[in-house]
Amino acid sequence: MRHLLSVADLDATAATALLDTSDRLRQALLGREVRKLPTLRGRTVITMFYENSTRTRVSFEIAGKWMSADTVNVSASGSSVSKGESLRDTALTLSSMGADCVIVRHPASGAAHRLAGWMDRGQDVTGTHTSIVNAGDGTHEHPTQALLDAATLRERLGGIAGRRIGIVGDVLHSRVARSNVLLLATLGAEVVLVAPPTLLPVGVDQWPCRVSHELDAELPALDAVMMLRVQAERMHGGFFPSAREYAVGYGLSETRAALLPDDAPVLHPGPMVRGMEIAPAVADGTSSAVLAQVRNGVHVRMAVLYHLLAGAPE
């Protein structure tokens, strides 16, 4: 694996290999007083985030540190980007400094793909092969979030193939939804998108999933449900009447959660808007897998770095 830019780059075998590596790394760290593995000693991993992030950025930094890589964080506001430097020049500068991997989040869809192309073409100039990991590009994709969600579902359900997974909410602005639909379908799940018509993207009928507008009708048949964040910062116009109306139609209240099968986990990529997208009692309840997602995020990102920088296991 040279880069991780899209879930579409992974077939079922490659995705399962990443999830299996994540499980092995988690087991390797169990019981260790000092959570350190020497796997990536001497490697340099840089996180370059042009959008705010807590879970993704910090979990990548922890993943690198737990594998003994040298990790460096570059923020747009504290770098030459604030002086007008282009994404290309910033990336090639970091590669010339010896970065083995650059993890990038950018508001423009396709930014990670452009970056990977520049890195590949600039390898002869910089003398360094630099892998790119897409940590979220606009409303396009977020492949490591989909992988950690799959790891959580596999942990809670025992497997993904043949399961029916519901993804609920702001699909239109969600890179998480797109990546999850592609990955879960690749791993053999049946995916149901539940959203108001105004929050569904054009062309969603071409995605490998079914679309519904009736949350109450879908919940009893789901093996798991993933609530999406309403991305108000990306909305320019009225996509629903009010926060209260959205909660009434598509929020996961306690009453709605009771419609799910008893063993169905509830996921949310975070940050959660409590009371609108999900009731506090559901977010903190026994069915909630939100904190398990965060924990699995570190191990999955360790697996991604391992496959990129150390090579997949024999």
UniProtKB/TrEMBL annotation:
Biological or metabolic pathway of the protein: Pyrimidine metabolism; UMP biosynthesis via de novo pathway; (S)-dihydroorotate from bicarbonate: step 2/3
Reactions catalysed according to its record: carbamoyl phosphate + L-aspartate = N-carbamoyl-L-aspartate + phosphate + H(+)
Pfam family, one: OTCace
Organism per entry: Pseudonocardia sediminis
GO MF assignments: amino acid binding; aspartate carbamoyltransferase activity
Matches recorded under InterPro entries: Asp/Orn_carbamoyltranf_P-bd (IPR006132), Asp/Orn_carbamoylTrfase (IPR006130), Asp/Orn_carbamoylTrfase_sf (IPR036901), Asp_carbamoyltransf (IPR002082), Asp_carbamoyltransf_Asp/Orn-bd (IPR006131)
Enzyme type, top EC level: transferase
Domain annotation Aspartate/ornithine carbamoyltransferase Asp/Orn-binding: ranges: 162-308
Name this protein carries in UniProt: Aspartate carbamoyltransferase
GO cellular component, one term: cytosol
Oligomer and partners: Heterododecamer (2C3:3R2) of six catalytic PyrB chains organized as two trimers (C3), and six regulatory PyrI chains organized as three dimers (R2).
Free-text function comment from the UniProt entry: Catalyzes the condensation of carbamoyl phosphate and aspartate to form carbamoyl aspartate and inorganic phosphate, the committed step in the de novo pyrimidine nucleotide biosynthesis pathway.
